[in-house]
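Every protein is a chain of amino acids, and every chain bends into a shape of its own. Below is the pair of lines this work produces for a single protein:
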Amino acid sequence: MTDRATIRAEAETLFAAFKSAGAVAVEADTLLPAETLLDLYGEDIRARAYVTSDPLRGEMMLRPDFTVPVVQAHMQSGAEPARYCYMGEVFRKQDRPGGRANEYLQVGFELFDRTAPEAADAELFALFHGLLAPLGLRPATGDIGILMAAVKGLSTSQRRKAALLRHIWRPARFRKLLDRFAGRAAPPQARQEMLARLRSGDMAALIADAGPMIGLRSEAEITARANALIEDDQTPPLAAPEAALLYDLLTLQAPARAALSHMRGITSMLPAIEPAVDRFATRLDALERHGINPSDLPFAASHGRSSMEYYDGFVFSFEGNGLPVASGGRYDALTAVLGQGRSIPAVGGMIRPAMLATLREALA
């Protein structure tokens, strides 16, 4: 097992490199208000974070990552453009023995710049690529923005599009919804039985038969939700060509230039993705100017969908010997959520020094 001093030395080297790239070093509290993270991710975050209660500050979480506090600090008082770097521990629950550590050191870089977002993506990726090149890591890239654009352009109800967008970071749940909306899978038996019961009688009578009201929902809210479920069940399936194109995107894996050619070929049938594909092309040109060949760069349209849920554009990772060494991506929407009326395009990434140290030991 790699000792803490070696890991810390790796972290210090990375931190110095980020500062040399113009980033301002920032600190973040170890205990963060749980309310902000719950608002962003919903109750799912509880399964991944350590939660505690403070008698004065209320519910708190041990820092699960740095991006949220860095964005909050920037949106409150940061100048533009800006670049920051950080170094410190994050804390994540693990669901199986022998998995990742519950507490580990992260070093990261965050770039806020509205002038040329795709150039910023390329700059950040090239910085990480250069730092990690001596270890021969395998890079991977994706673009969640293209998938989101495809979903937004579907010819179906806003409710169904919202459901797909909400679960775009949960691949298994997303696929189940898509299969059902495309008519490829029947609703679960329990759902069919529930819908049959909702249609069987007057809503007020059904509520009365259920017994006393428990919980915070009013009778009007329950009725509205039931009517929404019935309405959704009556929504026609996705048009077969649209569904086929979306399935195609979900499985697209190719070198980035070849992926661009493929997506250019389907924009006439799925025009909603064209602006996102144009941004993708601009990013590839910017990467090429940094000496990275897009014809050799792996791309998968679904890459990054199991990462933190704020990524909404370019995503990337680096892996070696099965170890997840680094990852990052674009999170423009997060700045709008935390900006109280302001927003700015932003991209960031982090490296796990412990993984780097382990790989260096294996190569020694």
The longest strand covers residues 82-91. The chain has a mean pLDDT of 89.
